[in-house]
Structure of Magnesium transporter:
Amino acid sequence: MSTINRVYAGRLSGMFVRNSDGDAIGRVRDVVVRLREHGKTSSALGLVVEMTDKRRVFIPMGRVAVEPNEILLLSGQISMKTFRTRPGESTIIGDLVGAKIQIDDPELDHLHGVPQELTDIELERNRTRDWILTKVAALGPKKGLRGRRDVAVAPWNHIHGLGAGTSPKAADANLVGEVLDMRPADAARYISTLETDRRRTIAEALDDEMLADIIQELPDEDQAEVLEDLTIERAADILEEMDPDDAADLLGELDTNRADVLLDLMAPEESQALRRLMDFEPDTVGGLMTSDPLVLQPTATVAEALARARDPELPTSLSSMVFVTRPPTATPTGRYLGCVHLQKLLREPPSTQIGGILDPDLPPLYAEDNDDTAARYFATYNLVSGPVVDNEGHLLGALAVDDLLDHLLPEDWREAGIRPGSEQPN
């Protein structure tokens, strides 16, 4: 079945959530949203899913595909932490359904000044793959002896009276809203200028995925400070959401005892990958690479490879190259066979097996190579990511050019901005 891009929250409630193997892992019980002040876009953050063990967990909207009769999980890893709303968040069914609202839609002038009762909210996925709130279904006052109530559907931007979620202060909700409108790098620069209390407010209100994206863009000292302010359980969750290379670097900035505790709280496969990365010297390719590139077996088709490359959670640099290995495909993999560039995939028939279109002549990087070797490698082969192997020919990960640049630039480059010393905007 094809995915759908518009749906009411009430329709989602009760749907089965299935993993990549087709197994049901739970049912949708609610939708988590962040409401913005009137006139600004409000968004759906994720689903509250009741797992088979009755525990309710949160799954971000970016990690699911909404089908007509079920929800498909796009990412294999989800946090099993019991769901609780954070400041600035609301649930549609638990918090908003039944609330009194006011409608000022010019097309529904007969409802102006008449209290309505919210019964459902429509969600729509936009071009940036975010789910936003677009319409509201509401019931009017009872009429007649039988108490009949008319149903009205109005655009979201003509609804008043819901406030801005559970945040205790409107100023805090507005502050969080400003951050959500920024790119992670710009949000990081903004957050680094705030006082500790304001920074803590933002961290508490953001979901794990967004906070992880922002932390990755902060200077090293600020990364450690933000993480230290979180509960130990949430800090471990944030590390799981971060890119492995960034998470390993951050753990290296922490006290050894705290780093060990955080690693113990993480999922075993996540912590093992980070421990391997932390064994390498920081100036080597092994210390700069990510352990989670796009890896497939040679029997995979071009269609499968392109589907994986379209994953919105995969960084752009890593989606440019598919690495092909013998099983297992989790790093460290079986024998590395070669790679296929994204442009090559776009020129081949969808049914073609990628093992037949490999570029076997591109040499790999080795984990012990230094940063100068890596820079020369990217300049020589005009790449944005490259394979990293060990001496036995197993793929250990991939080095992205943005991570190399981050390492080669001066330590204070984030604080200085794009054009240090210039009056032009950074």
Notes: The chain has four domains: 6-83, 94-160, 182-279, 295-408. The chain has a mean pLDDT of 88. The first strand starts at residue 6 and ends at 8. Residues 6-83 form a domain with the Photosynthetic Reaction Center; Chain H, domain 2 fold (CATH 3.90.50.10).
